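--- STAGE predict ---
source: upstream dedup step, 1 unique chain passed
mode: sequence only
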Amino acid sequence: MPEAAVTERRKDKRIIVENMRRVLLKEYLMKETRRAGFGGLDIQRTPMGTRVTLLSERPGLVIGRKGGAIKSLTDAVERRFKFDNPQIEVQEVGNPSLNAQIMAEKLANALERGWHFRRAGHSTVRRIMESGGKGCLVIIAGKLTGQRHRTEKFKAGHIKYCGEPRNLWMDRGFAVAKLKPGVIGVTVEIMDPAAKLPDEIEVKAAVSGASAIPEPAVEPASELPIEETPVAPEEPAKAEPEAAEADEAVTLPEEEPPKPVETVKKSKVATKRLKKVAKTVKELGVDADVDVSEEGK
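--- STAGE serialize ---
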């Protein structure tokens, strides 16, 4: 057999042995801390040794008086499972009703105390949903009402059965209830209340200050220079109505008897129009006297 194949086989064997050791450790700690409410286990290998994080509903029972219980538990783990310098840390579960393993253990205990399986299943589902769970699934399988095996499911809310959302957000717990007809398996699956599913889309409101496009500033008409106003010389028709308005300010001919010249008070708009008319008349070559002085201001 080639050397590479032998090395790969040894690596696979180490992985299998390590995983089996972790599963056996979990079953052992679950059995030893049943009264304290076993909620889960996390094993991490560090340079200082192996850190085992134990979740419990009542951490005081796991630690014991003056830490005696947890010391004996650490020695047993090191002796039985050959872990290097194990360090067991106990953490309290924040909300036991949302921990699948704890709820599975409580449901199994209720069945062992004589509760009817339908009453126990509905009660568990209602308690999980009232605690804020996004969804839950309870499966009870075994000899429930007779000598024949049957399976009952109780579910509520949103449940994922496959895919990445199930691996990320679904917490799973399993327990066994030992009854006279036989054992009954209890499986509880709970979806995390903070689950972010792929089909949930959040549309954010636009911020008025950041999204508003500033409009270009427009100067008032009175402040614009005269040169910027284009006047087409080939359109003489536009000058005729404006010239009629300017006749009021034109002086009378000398042949007629002199009359007092009446000046019309002009606004800024009228002054601007008169300037435009004077420019147009000058371009057309017409001899006319147009008074564009801003009198009457």
